[in-house]
Amino acid sequence: MPTTTAAPLRIDSAELRVVRLPLIAPFTTSTGTMYDKVFPLLTLRSGDLEGYAEGVMDPMPDFLDDTIAGGIDFLQQAILPQVIGASFENPEALNRILRPWRGNWMAKAMVDMAYWDLWAKSMNLPLSTVLGGLGDAVPVGISLGIDDIRDTVEKARMNQALGYRRIKLKIMPGHDLELVSAVRAALPDTPLTVDANTAYTLADMKVMHALDALGLDYIEQPLAYDDLHDHAVLQSRLKTPICLDESIRSAADARKALAGGAARVINIKVGRVAGHLEARRIHDIAAAWDVPVWCGGMLEAGIGRAHNIHLATQPNFRKPGDTSSISRYFKRDIVLEPLEVKNGLMPVPPGPGIGVQLDRAFLAEVSGEALTF
């Protein structure tokens, strides 16, 4: 493998698969319950090199408006025909192909992320290095789905004892104050956050004020995904920082949210924001405002999780992310390397690119027929 490259990378071919991995336990949020993680997996090839990316869109538009079927169709019809056979000097050159198309953020992210992996491998460098990251491990927290209050308290205690740096609780109307109060009573000094996944409105101000009194690190995405105005109103009435997730799809969204006072923390999910190039722009805008960011998760398997780990090495990722141990979710992963947390730190996979290799035999068992281009 070369140590550096000055020549553009030609994309010789691509492969798309849809993967279905059963979850060890159901994961419930305010938008529904997941029993399996279903996701598209993209491979870009250049010579002997391969770059990989997972899509984070769901089968139905419940988290955001992207869907697996729509994303695959968009890649087949619009993007891959422009990419296959073309050469790109760097991710910005590739972005000129992606930028003109409206929406489809998660499908664009797959192409961007696979190219970054490929580009880093062509230079024999870790993805974290080419992103400008630092260090060989990132701090992580845990995200607990909606469940029985007593069970959630026990899970919170157990994961705090394992060294996770933050406990996040999924909440929804009717399953909020009693839950959060119980966990806070059990863990009075542990950094604690809540994630509503857009389940509330300004009519729920009484609940918001009660949450404001529970010493939370932040309240994540309490209101509608497309409403920066009401988030700004809410933030002006709370001392607890609001963290935006679904509302931030681009650097422009981040700038408007921060300028308008809609948030004091931003969750960056590289698969939500069209890829690493836009994620880095959001990171830099937040840094300019002295607003911390952290890396969110979408129950990714090993490819998506490895991208998240490298992403979170950038310096303004100042809060623990959601990239917890893969063994919490799946009995077996689609990559060979175990991505496991040690004392609240997730090691950065060493080696070129994202640093993980596909378990091709297992991948064949859990995915359908590959589409090749």
Explained architecture:
Helix content is 34%, strand content 20%. By secondary structure, the chain is α/β, with parallel strands linked by helices. The protein has 2 domains: 130 residues, Enolase-like, N-terminal domain (Enolase-like, domain 1); 218 residues, Enolase-like C-terminal domain (TIM Barrel), CATH 3.20.20.120. Strand 8, helix 6 and strand 9 form a beta-alpha-beta unit.
What's the short version?
With 373 residues, this protein is of the alpha/beta class. Helices cover 34% and strands 20% of the residues. Strand 2 and strand 3 (32-46) form a beta hairpin.
Q: Which descriptors apply to this entry?
A:
373 residues; Enolase-like, domain 1; TIM Barrel; 2 domains; 4-stranded antiparallel β-sheet; 15 strands; 34% helix; globular
Strand order of the biggest β-sheet: 7-8-9-10-11-12-13
Q: Which architecture of the largest domain would the CATH scheme give at its second level?
A: Alpha-Beta Barrel
Average of pLDDT: 95
Which geometry do the CA atoms define? globular
H and E string? EEEEHEHHHEEHEHEHEHEHEHEHEHE
* Computed CA radius of gyration, to the nearest angstrom: 20 Å
Whole-number tally of structural domains? 2
**What structural category arises from helix and sheet content?**
alpha/beta
CATH 4th-level superfamily of the largest domain: Enolase-like C-terminal domain
Question: How much of the polypeptide forms β-strand, as a percent range?
Answer: 15-25%
Q: Would you count the extended β strands for me? A: 15
Number of helices: 12
CATH class of the largest domain: Alpha Beta
Biggest sheet record: 7 strands, parallel
CATH fold descriptor of the largest domain: TIM Barrel
Spans of at least 5 consecutive residues whose pLDDT stays below 50 are 1-5
Q: For the record, give the distance between the C-alpha atoms at the N and C termini, rounded to a whole number.
A: 24 Å
- DSSP helix fraction: 25-40%
